[in-house]
Amino acid sequence: RSNQSPHLTLLHQAFHLEHNRLARELADLNAGWDDETVFQQARKLNIAQYQRIVYYEWLPIYLGAENMRAAGVLPALELPGFADDYDASVDPTVSNAFATAAFRF
């Protein structure tokens, strides 16, 4: 299946490698963590990076940053480029339609 969408294979590989890089750094910084804790924390950071790329880089190109600002869904980023709009009560999942169709082009 990887030969159907080589660009998607590269994206998966990049995030796989990034997860492992994060896990190594977290394990070095937190010697008392077990493997599962290291894995889950690296996973959370990796997902956050992915979401930031989609929300602040891909969607503004696809939908238009001005359109997103007008709809109130793209806050201005404060220097040095970080948002402070995290809300733990918001469901961060991505719909299957988005993951399997929209984000693949």
Q: What's the overall average pLDDT, rounded?
A: 85
Q: Describe the global form.
A: globular
Low-pLDDT residue intervals, each spanning 5 or more residues: none
How many strands appear in the DSSP assignment?
Answer: 0
Tally of domains: 1
Radius of gyration: 16 Å
Q: Largest beta sheet, briefly?
A: none
**Which structural category fits the helices and strands?**
mainly alpha
Tell me what you see in this structure.
By secondary structure, the protein is mostly helical. It has one domain (6-104). The protein has three helices and no strands. The radius of gyration is 16 Å and the shape is globular. The two termini are 16 Å apart. The relative contact order is 0.08. The mean pLDDT is 85.
Task: List descriptors.
single chain, 105 residues, mainly alpha, globular, oxidoreductase, peroxidase activity, peroxidase, Peroxidase 4A
Question: How would you summarize this macromolecular structure in one to three sentences?
Answer:
By secondary structure, the chain is mainly α.
